[in-house]
Each structure stands twice: as C-alpha cells, then as structure tokens.
Amino acid sequence: MKHALRLDELVVGRRVVVRHRLPDGSASDALGELVAADEERLVVVTRRGEVVVPRADVLAAKAVPPAPARRQTSQTSIEELELVAAEHWRPVEREDLGAWRLRAAGGFTGRANSALAIGDPGCDLDTALARVRAFYAARHLDAMIAAPTGPLTQELELRGWQVRTPSLVMTARLDPPLPAQASPVGLRLDDEPDDVWLATYRGRGPVGEVGRRVLLSADEQVFASIRDDDGEVLAVARGSLSRGTPLGAEGTWLGLSAVETAPAHRRRGLAVAVTRALLAWGAQRGAARAFLQVAVVNDPARALYEKVGFRVHHEYRYLVG
C-alpha cells in the first residue's frame, strides 16, 4: 500500500487497510472491515480474525474498495445474522413496520425492547422514526433502535439519537464436531431457569414473569449452571436454538447468552467451562454455527469468547431518541 495516513477514511463499517508496527519493530497490514475505532485503538476484522491496532502503532491507513464478490460463500450476511439472533430472544409484543421489527417486553433487556432496523421500513425515515417513537411512548419505554453500525446509525446520530451500548456480534463454527470435553464438576443443564439461576444472571434486579417469557422464547433453550455441593450457583449461561430464517441463513444456530459468574468465584475458568458445555450441547443437537452478542468495551468477555473460537462478525448499536 502507499504509505498514506487518511484518518478521515477510518469510518466504522468500511473496508480498510492499516499498516502498523509490530512489537519486534517490523510492520504488518490489517486488511478488512473496521468494526471499532476510538482514540486509543482500531479494530479490524480480517480473514484471519480480529486485529486490534493501538493508534500509536499506526503507520498508514486508508479505505479500500470492497472485496470482489465470490460466486459461492458460506458467510452469513449481517442482515441474515441479525434476523437469526432475533429468533433467540423474542419479545412479548411485536409490530412490523415494513421489514423493521418493533419489539417490547416491559423493559427487560435492550434486545427485546428495541426496533430492529433491518431492511426497508416501507416508508421514509421521518415517518418510520415517528412510528417508532409512538410505539414505545404507548408502552412507557424509551424509543430505541437496534441496527448494524453503518449509514443508518450515522444518520440517527446526526439527528440527535444517543448511542447506548455499542456491541459486537461474534460467531463460531461448530463443525467439524467439537472434541469431547470433560463435564465440569457440578454442571447442570435445565429446561427452565430456577430462582438461584435467575439471581446469578440478574444481580442488577429481578427478572419477573415477562423476563422469564423472553428467556423461554426460542425454539429450544437450555439453562446451564455450575453449582457447588451446597447448591450455590457459581456460574450460569443460556443456550438457545433456532433453525435459520427465510433469508437463507441455513442450518441450526446456537445462541449463547446470559453468561455470568458469581463475583466471589471469578477468575477460576468457570465461564469458559460453562460456555464450552453449551457449545457441545448445541453441536449435539445439530447446530453448525454459534453466535453471541457482547459490548464492545467488555474486553474480558471478548477474550473469553475468542479463547473458545469466536470471532467478530459485525458491530451494532442501540440508539435512543
């Protein structure tokens, strides 16, 4: 690449190439989609995985044209994956606005209480936003839109919508089948969450009946926990299954969510153990792919998921207006 430093071209969602300094003094290029950029670092998803480049190590950077289209690919598009994920965490109420989904569940989680802005809403943007605001005002909820980072989120920010929780969708392949792992001591897989599971998952507040309905809303789900001999819950996670969408994301997907470790038992590898147990559970039921959603700033969680094979697929944002 020509050694140009074009900072104005470093826009999240664009394909870029970033030449950067390595620890040994040599240089390397990261070519792929820019999924995050702040004052300290750039995050580029390349064909080999995610590359985090400290700003201080950037030697040159610029936007590049999209990669040539391949005739055949197994890569699931952002639109397909967002619709797959929506089937794992269904709201109590849903109204469709063209291809957009207006979702509500009494305020339990952003995923179940935001308008999923994928595709064409069937009207101009001003009308669509007015409909979104009216839907949530009628339910005494903040008007919130969830959308992949890109032109729509940029337009919403220009209109004064406030970003809440920039997040990543990460994916992993489960085929060929995962190697057998010894089950963690105290592992349980239950069809429904009991009170102690819920208490570990939602230390910030009660789940309530609406929350239980959302947690049990997928085609199939399982609630994993690791407990000690006295029944104390040390770690929890939820695994869910869906069978793809009409857009063509074929096969069964495993969704991983609600991964939590009790504060007194962190740094013992329990989150990795319960995550691997759910990946094995999904593979046994025919899932070929897995996904999860994690906040961009949650570096410890991202490191955990990368350890078990997940890589960044795309970034999305919640915006409140």
From TrEMBL:
Instruction: Read off the Pfam families from this record.
Output: Rv0428c_C (PF24553), SH3_Rv0428c (PF24551)
Query: What Gene3D superfamilies does the annotation carry?
Result: 3.40.630.30
Q: Which top-level group of life is the source organism from? A: Bacteria
Protein name as it appears in the record:
FR47-like protein
* CDD domains cross-referenced by the UniProt entry: NAT_SF
The protein's matches in InterPro entries, at most eight in alphabetical order, are given as: Acyl_CoA_acyltransferase, GNAT_dom, Rv0428c-like_C, SH3_Rv0428c
Question: Which PROSITE patterns does this one have?
Answer: GNAT (PS51186)
Annotated organism of origin? Quadrisphaera granulorum
User: N-acetyltransferase domain location, by residue?
Assistant: 185-321
GO MF: acyltransferase activity, transferring groups other than amino-acyl groups
